[in-house]
Amino acid sequence: MRKSLRQSTLQTLGLGSVTDIFRNGRLPVDAGDLVDRVFGGPDDRGSLVISGANGIVGAGKMMQLTSRLEPFGVKSIGLSRPRTADGIGPHYPGLVAAVGQERADRIMGNIVRMTYDGTSLPADLGKWRPRFLLEAIPEILEIKKAHYRLFRAAFPGIEIRSVTSGFPSSELGVGVAHPAFPHEINKVWEVVEKETSSMTQLLWALGLIPVPVSDDWSFVLDVLFCGLTLAGLEYHRATNMPFWKIDKYLRKLVGPNPFRAHDVIGAKGANSLTWSCLHHLGEKYGALFRPTPELDERRVTGQNWYPLNHFRPLVNWPMDDEAEAEFTAWIQGALFQMASLMLHEQRAHLSHINAIGELCAQFRRGILAMIRSVGVEAAIKNVEAYHRLHPEAAGSCWYPAVFEQLGSPEWQQLYVNAEHDGRVGVVTISRENYHNDVDTELNRAIDWLKAEGIANVILTGDFHLATQMVGADISEFFPALDDAEAGRRVARTWSATARRLYDEFKVSVGFVNGKRCLGGFLELLMHCHYLVAVEDAVLGMPEVTLPVVPGMEGCHWPFRKANRPQWPKLVRMLLTGAPVKAQDAVDWLIDYSGPMQDSLQTVWRFASGGAAGLTMRKLDEGMLKGVPADIGVSVSDSPATEAARKAIMETIRDSCGVPLSEALDVQARHSADFTVSSFCREGSIGAEHLRTMMV
Ligand SMILES: NC(=O)c1ccc[n+]([C@@H]2O[C@H](COP(=O)([O-])OP(=O)(O)OC[C@H]3O[C@@H](n4cnc5c(N)ncnc54)[C@H](O)[C@@H]3O)[C@@H](O)[C@H]2O)c1
């Protein structure tokens, strides 16, 4: 009997369920096999061609793809027009910093650069056997279509994908692989194709994040990003507030500062892309998307949105509550209406629609999580208030009925899913930062598994949207900066969730499947009876560097599971914040580390009760004495670090010094008390709070 709380996002890529990954003891596809399928076998290996390779997208994707495909012997061909400035070379220093000079040189050496006149392909291109073309040339439909004709005439079997920001595949006549800025770093690609291709699965197998979306204008990302920009522009028209100031309020309300982002990407190109997306959306859907005259003008002039620093007035004034409520109606009203359209058109899996805003457009919370947090009624009221302010938008594409599904598992489990096979449950988390929504969803997932009678559980990342687990979302601590009770509440609530993994299952196994597991996430996973990590993962407790005091039992739980001689390693990890390699953490922090396949099989053995011979590290529930305070960490010259170390050491001593039943409260209190101290308020969390919230 197989069941899942909702469809896993992995299934949208034709890659099966996460349970199957553990049950089969291997990942669903292999990068080498897929390279053979896309580029031909080793004797007949063809090449990747990127056209527009000196452009922003072309050059970035050249770095990202070449660094992953070079080891498989796939040549990268960069095709450019003459008289374009080198876009690839400037990436070299960043590449060296990321992978070292030797590897960077090999990657660069794998790129063949060709120039052509735009109308006839270079004669010797054929000798590289082009198999896959990633088209990254300007956003002009006729130019793109002519380009495909040229390639198809020369290489009839070639697979083509366009990086277009907004043209549907039905207009282009090729599939879409739309990447997100910054292109050398961001792993997300919105993909439009009739059925999942080997190339899309290959992107996944190479550690990237392809996300299937429907074939509608501007897909999901650019509805959100261009839509938010437009909402800001409309507000500007109504109030004349300068763009830089609108940005500040947008950052506070939603997360991104879109006008600054246009300038950073390059206003000339970005203005014209935003205009193009909105123009076409406006043609299809009406006034909700139509560009304003300010954007029409800047599309032509390419002018920046921000004035030079010295032209920004030094005298600033905040909005009062009433004005801020009106601002919220302008912005959220527009965004919520746009979201209703995307849901009505079923543009993507709900977790995808939500995650795209967070991963690609700096939304603090995804659009659907935002709607969920205000509730159906308030969301609809918000859009109605927006329509009173901007009546033209009311005329089309407003689908309030879609919000009525808010109680469904798809809406309720945006970040956490659960599945089981009748015996073993698998809980997956698709967000890299732990926050209240994840916590609530995790509780619901656990409730569901328990109601299904499942006693054995695996807790892991989702093998798709989250490629690592980097700890708590620091914006969750903003209220705790001046309210110790708020801090205690977060620490207590999250720790109680973590304890469910220990208390409520016969066997629980945490699995670190990505490259990092840090802070709050490591604390969460260490509550499992067993903890397994792939060998190239790093683990750590970087709280001291922020500084904060860990709040999810990291200061006593691992001591209770480790032998006394191992305690100095734990103290060192907590006091320095230095990460440890998974393989070096076996026996004192985790139970097993190995290559992916071995790790998957070990997790399954633990979880399915076949772990005979492997003893569980027992949790000492009593009072621990003798945790060493002096483990030879040299004194830091930062008073904040020293203060945090002292507070962490006290937390270790006090929470280890009481029985398990009391330790949760002791640790929560210490953590909350430090968060209201000047060291935390003046540290990273305080600074971020000041930057984003104190407008
Ligand atoms: N800029 C972004 O952040 C972003 C994000 C996602 C998608 N896109 C899409 O990427 C595509 C390219 O945008 P960009 O921002 O990289 O533009 P860009 O102007 O930086 O790069 C385009 C490059 O294509 C070259 N070019 C023009 N005609 C060509 C041809 N016939 N053959 C080969 N090269 C040709 C140009 O000389 C230029 O170097 C567009 O479709 C855009 O919508 C852009």
Bound molecules: nicotinamide-adenine-dinucleotide
The coarse silhouette is: globular
| Biggest sheet, spatial arrangement of strands | 4-3-2-5-6-7-8-9
Mean pLDDT across the residues is 96
Structural class: alpha/beta
CA radius of gyration is: 26 Å
Number of helices: 28
Span between termini: 53 Å
Strand content: 5-15%
Unreliable stretches (pLDDT < 50, length at least 5) are none
The helical percent reads: 40-55%
Largest β sheet strand count, sense and barrel closure: 8 strands, mixed
Overall number of strands? 20
How would you summarize the topology of this molecule?
Blueprint: E1 3-4, H1 18-24, H2 31-39, E2 47-51, H3 56-69, E3 76-80, H4 92-99, H5 101-109, E4 111-115, E5 130-135, H6 141-154, E6 159-162, H7 169-172, E7 175-179, E8 188-192, H8 198-205, E9 209-212, H9 221-239, H10 243-253, H11 258-265, H12 267-285, H13 293-301, H14 321-344, H15 350-360, H16 367-374, H17 376-389, H18 409-412, E10 416-420, E11 424-429, E12 433-434, H19 436-451, E13 456-461, E14 471-472, H20 484-503, E15 507-512, E16 516-518, H21 519-526, E17 530-534, E18 538-540, H22 557-561, H23 567-576, E19 580-581, E20 592-594, H24 596-607, H25 639-656, H26 660-675, H27 678-681, H28 684-693
Parallel strand pairs: 2-3, 2-5, 3-4, 5-6, 6-7, 8-9, 11-13, 12-14, 13-15, 15-17, 16-18, 17-20
Antiparallel strand pairs: 1-10, 7-8, 10-11, 18-19
The structure holds nicotinamide-adenine-dinucleotide.
